[in-house]
Amino acid sequence: MPKVLIIRGRAGTWYEHSVANLHEFSHFADCVYIVKVGTSSVGLEVREEDGVLLYTESEYNEVVRQRDKMIDDLAKHAEELAQLKKDNAAMQSVFDRSKGELGLIQLPANVSDALQYLGYTHSPRDILALILQGSPAKPYKSYDRRRDEAIRALQVHEFDDILIALADGYEVEQSPEERLNNEIEEIILDWHEASSGEVPVLTKRIVDHLKSIQT
Q1: Where would one find coiled-coil regions in this protein (predicted)?
Q2: DSSP readout, 54-118?
Q3: Which residues share a beta bridge with 33?
Q4: Rounded CA gap, 114 and 137, in Å?
Q5: Does the pLDDT value for residue 124 go beyond 70?
Q6: Distance CA 140, CA 138 (A)
């Protein structure tokens, strides 16, 4: 509703001490504003020169319309952002499984070595056949112990990971020590801006110290 702002508390009036107070506007009659105060259903008078009508009825309705439209627009925008976030998450998940610098699957070193060894003489299709059948896709004239060890290493690993690695490529999974080493190097570079020649030496000292604590 429109409101009247009390700008002058004329002595002897009910609003003598109500300067800067806002009251809902009911109607205007005989140079006075009729305002609603408390639970009064009749309304009390405020002289025209003692108050300011902040909005006319039409102006107030337009303000309300614009406010409601803004709320609706913000709600719609929030929904669009939420949907966009879901779409981006889905796309990122697909990308992480596709071939790319950030999305290559990581395999343990022994699995990587097995794939590399078998890859010298076998196609990806033959490697999958070896994993599933446990026998060579091509006959061998002599026993190859390393080949059998490679096959066993792949058989006990997650098959889907190997399938993705053969299709899209892979990275060798870092050992806990390697990850710790890299993390410490990054910390040193970021915090102390040490020269590249000093960082590996200091990093090795930190890693050796942590290993001695664990043992």
Answers
A1: 67-94
A2: ---HHHHHHHHHHHHHHHHHHHHHHHHHHHHHHHHHHHHHHHHTSSSTTTPEEE-HHHHHHHHHH
A3: 28, 46
A4: 16
A5: yes
A6: 6
On the question of pLDDT at 98 being above 60, the answer is: no
| pLDDT value at residue 77 | 75
Q: Residue for token digits 């596709």?
A: 98
pLDDT of residue 115: 92
Separation of first and last alpha carbons in the chain: 76
Read off the pLDDT band of 212 (50, 70, 90).
low
pLDDT score recorded for residue 13: 92
Which residue did the predictor score with more confidence, 100 or 156? 156
Alpha-carbon torsion (68, 73, 74, 79), positive or negative: positive
Q: Is 162 exposed, middle or buried (0-12, 13-18, 19+ CB in 10 A)?
A: buried
Q: What is the structure's pLDDT at 117?
A: 92
For the stretch 124-131, contacts whose Cβ atoms lie closer than 8 Å and that sit 24 or more positions apart, written own/partner, are: 124/166, 124/167, 127/154, 127/166, 128/162, 128/163, 128/166, 130/154, 131/155, 131/159, 131/162
Question: What is residue 215's three-state secondary structure?
Answer: coil
